Amino acid sequence: MTDELDLKAHDPIGDPGLPEHQWRPQDVDPKQEKRTERHIAGMLGAAALLFVGFCVAYFAIPIDAVVFKTGATVGWSAQNFAFGMTLGGGLLLIGIAIIQWAKKLMGDHEIVELRHAAGSEKDDIDAVLDDINAGIEESGIARRPLIRNSLLGAMAALGLPAIVLLRDMGPLPHGHTNTVWKKGMRVVNDVSGKPIKPSDLEVGQLVNAQPAVFFETDEHGQHLYHGAELHAAKAKAAAIVVRMRPEDITPSAGRANWGVDGILCYSKICTHVGCPISLWEQQTHHLLCPCHQSTFDLADNGKVIFGPAGRALPQLPISVDSEGYLVAVSDFPEIVTPSYPELARDQKKLDKKFGGNN
């Protein structure tokens, strides 16, 4: 009995073979094949439209809009919701379309690959390349231009959200010159919001200032600027007001009337890397940046006299209104931003326009 069991245990197991191949509906019915091809192309086309919808949502939906609000302030960001639905939906449709293509239209036959040594012979390499070419042929990508072109279109449209999202890295500094300052806007203390009169300043004094609009409210008592918008606007519009003896000031051509009785207003943003500055030397009229020691002569149009800053501190033209308060004559004519390579060209244009000497 033992010998019989040992013989059975060592009997080789016969090759069971492969079950009979089951043809798919698309393999035997040309109409079903065309219908499936149109379905796949439709999903890819819908994906492309969703990617375009992502771009539309980026520009059309306000950043503070919400959906599914459950309280006074709680809700989902409408923009983020639209981004998720369009970008996620488009990627999902591309994935489903590719799966359907592989399962229903690509070649459907069993392949057996025996294990072999790591180092392949040339004949084996040629055989693999032949198999790859056969796979490309069986995929039907050359014979099915509708699916191929739809896939290429969907993948091309996928690049649109990526391009749009690059905009969220921040506005390009090139040519970006505007702040909230405008003609007639009062210059106020940056903490109290109190308007400033020339009589409030002593010779040698420096005051940190902001435009009055940051302290103004609407008919509901809400500030006009708030949240991230307020911080971004403040970062560009921050200013300093200094008073010197008029005879100590040497204005450039065209800047003789940019001050009031020795009172001048300059940007608080260092032109090197954007640090806020207010270290004021009364006797020398020098303003020192604490970050990298750039030094500006405010009696000489904010000119750089020391340090890595590459251009003068932007000056805000000021005057007084009918009630005797300091007001801006315009926005900063110069670009308020850290320096960058393209700035030299833009600054020359502004200097020519406003008579600067920076």
Keywords:
358 residues, alpha+beta, Rieske Iron-sulfur Protein, 8 helices, 13 strands
Strand content: 5-15%
Which descriptor suits the 3D outline? elongated
Largest sheet: 5 strands, antiparallel
Rg, please? 36 Å
Ends apart, CA distance between termini: 108 Å
- The average pLDDT score comes to 84
User: Helix and strand succession?
Assistant: HHHEEHHHEEHEEEEEEEEEH
CATH fold topology of the largest domain: Rieske Iron-sulfur Protein
How many independent structural domains? 2
CATH class of the largest domain: Mainly Beta
CATH homologous superfamily name of the largest domain?
A: Rieske [2Fe-2S] iron-sulphur domain
Textual characterization of the structure:
With 358 residues, the chain is of the alpha+beta class. The chain has two domains: 23-109 and 131-169; 187-354, Rieske Iron-sulfur Protein. 37% of the residues lie in helices and 12% in strands. The strands form four sheets. It has a five-stranded antiparallel sheet. A four-stranded antiparallel sheet has the order 7-8-9-10, with no helix packed on it. It has a two-stranded antiparallel ribbon with strand order 1-2. The longest helix is centred in the N-terminal third of the chain and has 31 residues, at 30-60.
